[in-house]
Design goal:
alpha/beta; 22% helix; two-stranded antiparallel ribbon
Amino acid sequence: MKQIIVLMGLIIFLTLSAFSIYVDYDNDYVDYFKSEMKIVDFTLNKDDADVFILIDGVTVGGGWQYNIFFFGQKTFYGLNDTFKLNFINDVSDYKTREGMLNIIKKGLIRYISKTDLSDRLIIDFEKQQEIIDNK
């Protein structure tokens, strides 16, 4: 997200996000990711992005396996990663989008940690529920 400030005739661009990403996948899903992730800029050209994310889906057994590839570019060159996401055949689009969004957020932590935004990053884990045996 960029903000333009005009000061005494000078145009100053302030970048409010840590970096830009390009997601290569179905446009409806990418539009959803854009609406849920305001911390990064989404570019229209993969070569302009700091991180290029490629999502590839294949059918396996009774469902789908999505491979989500992260390719660092520019200052993140060489920082690459791959995540896998598996779903049964009749999973809803909503669950698929949410699962992909969650993986993308996890994958971007590596890149966010190398920017000034790392100070705003909070990682928390859900407590594991205890099983109580009432005998």
